[in-house]
Design a protein that fits this description.
The chain is an alpha/beta fold. 30% of the residues lie in helices and 15% in strands. It binds 2-acetamido-2-deoxy-beta-D-glucopyranose (2 copies). It is an enzyme of class 3 (hydrolase).
């Protein structure tokens, strides 16, 4: 009896430990109150925020700054809707966030970054930290101040010791992956000259392609984002001087000029891009793509053919990155979006691999210069290591 009891108890403990490992550990929020005086605020005027897990041991002077994602708002209607959510107001944010994957503090789960200062910057401006409009409409009370938020948070982190950084990595996923790319050189410039500074963009390589009806849907959307948020002066001038402003949110027109070492991690069939760029709802009024967008296994052969075409375009514009060994690349053929923040895709026994290498190892090797990594997967469905996303059907009810 005793033996069976303690066996059951031990089993329960193991499950708790596994659960803790998978879920990560919780880190408290820090509000940057003094940013408010600088007008560096969330859409609703509340202070911006981040979560900081201090570095330890040999990591005390190393900084990982990870930017939260969450799309964009492109006009007053969508920004008003966002203003009352965690993506537009720090009043709506949870006080603790779970850190896992690239933010894990456990050596076997995150061997190269576990003991760094790890920061998760909350996203509450809706413009990938590019907006800056002085005027606040008293009717909507919307603040378009993403670029000021970026600077206020960086100043706060520099004052907390990031000014002594020896190693630093700016990273982020989705809209945060785009932020990492947009602010890469500017992050570099804020840090000590002798520091080893690099940028990782996870699922941030949004491409300028037409949707399934031939409409330039995402280009029009990005154009609205830039106009609404007054982003022009905060986008790289080498782009804004040559191109329509809205185009200067697309990595393909920016990466060539980025000087700081940059790693692009992206699925070639990025599920957000398939759902919102290739086959957005407005382009599919009869819902022909509905099931396929929820689960790639449900796509018809003609839909898969269109998705192969999307991958070809993706790889074409990815070539803008060039082949310098400072540029890292992990482009797998999965139906996924964001692979660095979850333990199961970052580094686990069954996580995605390219040439037998996990994302966590590829990024670590590239960051520390142990080996270059520039790999592109064979086309879907050749990769058996994928964790393909299957989405809930929210429209069913
Ligand atoms: C705002 O943007 C959304 C999403 O693109 C669109 O559906 C809506 O019509 C736009 N509203 C206005 C007032 O332009
Ligand atoms: C892949 O890596 C594992 C562990 O590092 C190793 O045991 C295995 O032999 C490798 N497989 C191939 C095909 O290289």
């Amino acid at each position: 009896m005793e033996g069976a009891k303690s066996y059951a108890w031990r089993r329960a403990l193991i499950w708790v430990l596994i659960f803790l490992k998978v879920e990560g550990y919780f880190v408290d929020i820090t509000y940057v109150e003094d940013a408010v005086a600088k007008g560096a605020v969330c859409l609703d005027g509340s202070p911006p925020a981040y979560h900081l897990s201090p570095g330890f041991g040999s990591g005390v002077n190393n900084w990982l700054v990870q930017i939260e994602g969450g799309g964009w708002c492109n006009n007053v209607t969508t920004c008003l809707a966002r203003k009352v959510t965690r993506l537009g107001s720090s009043k709506q944010m949870v006080k603790q966030l779970a850190f896992s994957g690239i933010l894990s503090n456990t050596p076997p789960l995150n061997p190269d970054f576990y003991n760094w200062n790890k920061v998760k910057v909350r996203y509450c401006d809706g413009s990938s930290f590019t907006g800056d409009v002085e005027r606040v409409d008293p009717v909507t009370n919307l603040h378009y101040r993403g670029a000021r938020v970026w600077l206020a948070i960086m100043e706060d982190l520099l004052a907390r010791g990031m000014d002594k950084a020896e190693n630093a990595l700016l990273s982020g996923c989705s809209a945060g992956g785009l932020t990492s790319l947009l602010h890469c050189d500017n992050f570099r410039a804020l840090l000590p000259t002798g520091a080893n500074v690099k940028c990782l963009s996870d699922a941030g390589y949004f491409i300028n392609v037409k949707d399934i009806t031939g409409t330039a849907h995402i280009a029009a959307f990005f154009d609205d984002v830039v106009t609404t948020h007054g982003s022009a002066k905060n986008l790289p001038s080498f782009c804004t001087s040559r191109m329509a402003l809205g185009l200067c949110l697309f990595p393909q027109y920016l990466v060539q000029q980025i000087q700081t070492p940059l790693f692009i991690l992206n699925a070639a069939y990025d599920s957000w891009q398939i759902k919102n760029i290739l086959a957005p709802g407005v382009a599919d009024p009869h819902g022909t793509w509905h099931d396929c967008k929820l689960d790639i296994k449900q796509c018809s052969s003609s839909q898969l053919q269109i998705m192969q075409g999307f991958r070809t375009e993706f790889l074409d514009v990815l070539a803008e990155l060039g082949s310098s060994s400072s540029r890292g690349m992990f482009i797998n053929s999965c139906y996924a979006h964001c692979q660095s923040e979850m333990q199961e895709t970052w580094l686990a026994s069954n996580s995605p691999m390219l040439q037998n290498t996990t994302i966590g190892k590829a990024v670590g090797d590239w960051f520390y210069g142990r080996s270059a990594f520039q790999k592109i997967d064979c086309p879907y469905p050749c990769d058996s290591t994928c964790h393909n996303r299957i989405f809930e059907d929210y429209s069913a009810a």
